[in-house]
Amino acid sequence: MDEIRPVSGAPAHGLVPLFPPGLQAIYGECRRLYPDQANPLQVTAIVKYWLGGPDPLDYISMYRNMGRPAQDVQEHWHYVSFGLSDLYGDNRVHEFTGADGPSGFGFELTFRLKREVGETAPPTWPAELMQGLARYVFQSENTFCSGDHVSWHSPLDNSESRIQHMLLTEDPQMQPIQTPFGTVSFLQIVGVCTEELQAAQQWNGQGILELMRGICIAGGPWLITDMRRGETIFEIDPHLQQERVDQGIETEGSNLSGVSAKCVWDDLSQPPEDEEDSRSICLGSQPRRLSNKDTEQIRETLRKGLEFNSKAALPPISSQKQSHERAQSRKDSLESESSSAIVPHELVRTRQLESVHLKFNQESGTLLPLCLRGRLLHGRHFTYKSINGDTAITFVSTGVEGAFATEEHPYAAQGPWLQILLTEEFVDQMLGDLQELNSREETKLPREYSWPEKKLKISVLPDSVFDNPLQ
């Protein structure tokens, strides 16, 4: 539970050593921006996380920012978190590893919310939103990067707003800081509509944010969230914005290399009574029990380049990490750290499969055209990682290096990790057949797509099938 109180300001000179250095460093950056707000309102966790409380962020400070009207920057409330970085340096929350690397997770969250006329105090709901994101980071140990997106599927303030998802970017004012416990950067949460989230998935988060910066009511230069915004950037400028997104997808492809999802796969090559079959992912049957060592190896492999939400109770979070560092080559490598790839290991023996059946829920299924058009046609790969276990499905193109699926054996598995290699010709065919998944209208479920000559079947099923797989 949280409480709201004013910050006590800078400590007296004689008490400086008692003031946590990590906390002091962040306060210092805030005071640089707000020298006249030494005592802002602050949401404080009553029971600190390191004392067993539920909220990882010790504090969230809330400042009034007057904006810059001449530059189309609206007046707004500015929220800053304290706790994702190492505030104390004594291992109570984060392992202290020295001053050279990141402090804790290496970042804090910020949020800019448009100030409504007549508001005299900042709303406190953004603090709970930030606590929710922090809980995800602490529980999954996955960090955020600029360009990442968060599928939230609910108005951020629990109203009727169209702002139901988030993108992340560098805060436009707060500079990275050096603390005695490492470096800290500041990532700003930006509220977006569903259509804008989908465009970020199809293309990339940074591209959509750049479009939003050019439209004052959609955020403007500092990407200020307006929960009352009723139009998407595509409704504000129907032709120009969509053309730029389509052009970006066509020329650059998508930087989204994987998502957490509700998905399973079946090996149709073996009869279901074959007890030696190592597939662990059959709906309607108990999965094969992996050893703890196998499970940890697979998790570590998937963790190498894709940042997944493995907690079903948390919102799906997908990373576009390292997109600005990617080489210009059209071919990603599954062995390359710089391509946000999965690095294969000898987890379990590789099996070639003759025929496979893929099953996705509706949200995951609608990303199949993105996978094919935005990734595989650009020589890249795309992974679905199940939120309900170790299951993973990776689609690869013929040019991806390091894959264990080949043109001769396009379906291959290592334990619960399936790879599917698709030729460009087959991708074009699938895009035509899956065209209805591009529609923004709800698709009547279940839907089945089959390519008998390729021995591949895909089903898009209701969520209930995945939530109760043994029923």
List the defining traits of the structure above.
Gyrase A, domain 2, isopeptide bond, 11 helices, 22% helix, 2 domains, six-stranded mixed beta sheet, alpha+beta, single chain, globular, 471 residues, ten-stranded mixed beta sheet, Suppressor of fused homolog, developmental protein
Topology overview:
Blueprint: E1 2-6, H1 21-33, E2 41-45, E3 59-65, E4 76-82, E5 102-114, H2 125-140, E6 149-150, E7 165-170, E8 177-179, E9 182-192, H3 194-202, H4 205-213, H5 233-236, H6 238-252, E10 258-261, E11 263-267, H7 292-303, E12 317-318, E13 350-352, E14 356-361, H8 362-365, H9 368-375, E15 381-386, E16 392-397, E17 411-414, E18 417-422, H10 424-433, E19 447-451, E20 456-461, H11 463-467
Parallel strand pairs: 5-9, 10-15, 14-20, 16-18
Antiparallel strand pairs: 1-2, 2-3, 3-4, 4-5, 6-7, 6-12, 7-9, 8-9, 11-14, 13-17, 15-16, 17-18, 19-20
Helix pairs in contact: 3-4
InterPro entries: SUFU-like_domain, SUFU_C, SUFU_C_sf, SUFU_N, Suppressor_of_fused, Suppressor_of_fused_euk
Keywords: Acetylation, Cytoplasm, Developmental protein, Isopeptide bond, Nucleus, Phosphoprotein, Ubl conjugation
Region (Disordered): 266-295, 313-341
Please mark out the parts with pLDDT under 50 across 5 or more consecutive residues, or reply none: 8-17, 273-291, 301-347
Quaternary structure: single chain
Largest sheet: 10 strands, mixed
- Residue share in β-strands: 15-25%
Overall structural class, as computed from helix and strand content, comes to alpha+beta
Counting DSSP E segments of at least 2 residues, the number of strands comes to: 20
